[in-house]
Amino acid sequence: MNVSIADVQKLRKLTGAGLADCKKALTDSEGNIEKAIEIIREKGQAIAAKRSDRETSNGCVLVKVVDGFGAIIALKCETDFVANGEDYIQLTRNILNEAVAAKAKSLEEVKNLKFNDGQTVQEAIIARSGITGEKMELDGYNYLEGQNIYSYNHMNKNLLCTLVQLNKSAEEQGHAVTMQIAAMNPVALDEASVPQDVKDNELKVAIEKTKEEQIEKAVQAALKKAGFNLYIAENEEHIAEGIAKKEITEAQAEEIRRIKKDVATEKANNLPEQMIQNIAKGRMAKFYKESCLLNQEFIQDSKLTVSDYLHAADKELTVTAFKRFTLRAE
Predict the structure, then answer these.
(1) Which of 103, 111, 149, 323 lies most in the core, judged by the most C-beta atoms within 10 Å?
(2) 14-28, 93-107, 126-140, 263-277 — which is least confidently predicted?
(3) pTM assigned to the model
């Protein structure tokens, strides 16, 4: 059947689908707009199912604050070509607008919100997947509720967004701290708010790293005392290189291996526990300084911590909460 340009344009406006897809859907539905919309939606469902195992490493991240409620959301896709499309960004914006208006508290709640046309957010995403031919999914939903919330979209590139809440109104300081969060990726507000499992894991890593360093120092000292080149003795690849270049003999290679094994074993069995704990505690202090927002060096003045910066404006000013989400590999 012949399909009118007016009907194609109407369907395109309703669905956002391409002209060719709209024309085919209208042809298949014999000009019935409602059936054509359903055909386009079904195409999206089929593509979503077919590409469910694809990686969605690109996308659009947006942030918004309205009337004491701030939220971040990410709509992820497969390629930056799709992610940078205005229609895709607008869909993300529309989803965020609905989430903020509803003051949604979870990603599942956002997915089930409805647009004015009766379509749920999840249905709209599936429909868009049918148009682009890529897998799409929501991720990164974070929110803060209350007064004195400030937001930041890093360089307006829609890849990294942050939210921060202060205990007092302070727009300049709030904006500065949102940028701090974007740049320095803190894991917690302060030492007390670091999750216990994170503390336990960091301490375990600190202890193991300290032990490894002490053993390595002992091995290097023994090799050096025996007159061996530390570069050659570093690993088997360098040892083989040394033999090939006749810088060491096979017998010397065996001696290097023996020293490394014996010294490492002896040192591991005789490490002073208190010294290991003290060094590990020092590593933990460094972790808290680098990873806790209020303890971090302020990016605009390294002589100050973030807490110092806030107190310089108001001795009672502090951060009560923050959120951050990015699509960038870190």
Answers:
(1) 149
(2) 14-28
(3) 0.78
